[in-house]
Amino acid sequence: MPPVQHCIRVEVRVEGVVQGVGFRPYVHGLARRLGLSGRVGNDTAGVFMEIEGTQQLVSEFLATLPAQAPPLAVIEQVRTSPLVPTGEPGFHIVSSNAAGRPDTLVSADSATCADCLRELADPTDRRFDYPFINCTNCGPRFTIVRDVPYDRPFTTMAPFAMCPACASEYHDPCDRRFHAQPVCCPACGPRLRLLDANGVDLPGGPLATAAALLTGGAVLAVKGLGGFHVATLASHTAATALLRARKHREDKPFAVMVADLTAAHELCVIDPVGERVLTGRRRPVVLLPRRPDTPLAPAVAPGNRNLGVMLPYTPLHHLLLRDTAGPIVLTSGNVSDEPISYQDDDARQRLAGIADAFLTHDRAIHMRTDDSVVRVFRGAELPVRRARGYAPEPLTLAQPAPRPILGCGAELKSTFCLARGRHAFISHHIGDLENYETLRSFTEGITHFRRLFDVQPEVVVHDLHPEYLSTKYAHDLPDVELIGVQHHHAHIASCLADNGAAGPVIGVAFDGLGYGSDGTLWGGEFLLADLAGFQRLAHLVPVPMPGGTAAIRQPWRMAAAYLGSDAPEELAQRHAGRWDAVLAMAHRQVNAPLTSSAGRLFDAVAAVLGIRDTINYEGQAAVELEQRADLTEQGSYPAAVTKGPALQLHGADLVRAVVADLQAGVAPEVISTRFHHGVADAIIRVCVMLRDSTGVGVAALSGGVFQNVLLLERTVAGLEQSGFRVLTHSRVPPNDGGISLGQVAVAGALLRAGSRASRGTGNRQ
Fold this sequence. Notes:
Alpha-Beta Plaits, 4 domains
């Protein structure tokens, strides 16, 4: 006779991204399948459940729970504790408990799933052609959440009362839309509208008329998940040129949305990794090699060898692409340098001079979120802009933050980061903190994250630059401890945190500009660093920036600073009216601060080659220099390294080698490659020298310059061949978008160490 199986009851708590992803119905179905009794619900900490049954079945439940979780779920921890069995039959989903401190995680917005797409295309389905179709496995999340727990009353779907059919699905544990908070249909959900520039409804079906407008060459504003985009037909020469003129966006490439992967292959060369990123649930813009025969208008991505491509991520996008039958430009709906518009009235005012019509709807967006942008490097994502599809899902810190921390980030490509315990909540991309609208978006975002994740910062971290608006914001906060972290130390710390490492490393921080701990402008740095501090062991030889910030906008000034009277005659003649004055400014160092910036070195070379004398967006000269490179070329330019209190890498050697080849008739494409190789080889040489003196064999590469995949590949390969372990970015951008995470990581290390001596710079010089 088999032994009697006694019942046990356990409490189970699951933490992570487990709300709004179909976790409760998954638990309900699993428990019912195994014949277990109990209950499951949401609270401010995640998902709680009580499971009762035999030891064998409860053990099977606990083993299966994480292994077969819903696709959008991210389980961080499962905790169990014994309870007294009650003998109550059945398994139930109970009402959410909003009491207590919010400690749950919020899912990012997710692309429309295959099941919903099948319904969208099925003429017999009640949601046929409905542009807001969603379920527990897809749809809006972060952009509609007002508070936690993630239930409909706390989202912007609250005004839409469910019809009986939707309510039946919502309450049916066997339905795919069971407790899907944005569930809706044509009878009860949001509705599409097409308005003219004056806010008047246009006749006809909104979708069909919008598609006809696009096909006819109109510029259309489209309300997406996180804000408005402006769109044109990507093959329409006049329309794309008109959009560029109206946005005052002279050169920066536009992103293109295509209907499916087949259409993407017609435009770009895509490897399996690129396919995976394009078709994943996050749906970022992916920068891919462009095919030379793409049927796109010249104004889409002028002079650019890459193309930013994305696939539809909302049902509205799928329908619009179907009806236009061609790729569309889909770029942020904003005025130049301002954040993306996300509120209807504001969008109609700010985009009135850009869009001919507005395809909008009545589901409010609570938090504006721009599209994410990534490159592909060595089989993984290299983030350029982390936003929709990624935020607000946190990174897990290797060591918990001892106290709640706010990292205010830098100024360009602004993000903020809130840390509590092991979670670092990095914000979506905010933009450049150079105007009131962006600053307001920054402060509103911090307020929302503080409430959503119940983080009340006790420690606030800022950049050392006294004029950054993020620094001023930090200093205006009452009753907090302030920690200033040097810009390039934050870059290396962000790379360490991205990789779950603590250091020490030889950190190579190459970017445009950052305020050095000595008050000068850094940007080509080699640091012996861990999270708590750093030593500046090497750097590019500083050169003047004639005219200060004018030298950023006009790269030819940096060519003058590097070459002086040795500049090619053609370059000097192009700027004959100002050349001598700029040379004198650089020589006398009047209004010409010294900088070790790697970004300014790339600017100088771009100007020498005639690629870019004046920029229209940040980093343009370096981007176009990379685009011109001949990828078959193997040559490299040498650069001297001299010893002193710190090693100094002579960037001027590289610039002079560029001039010599140019005057010898070598093609600019070949010169560009040799320059890139020369920079990489110099980095490797300096790192080897520093390893010999420090014994540290791990290198970390960070800073906006390392968005350059040509440079990054050569550098990583050479360092690995030299025996280094190399850390690069895969979860946060190497540019200033990762600074806030680095600031938090540094502050956490200082707090754990109880160190006050290093606070203010993190510098151990």
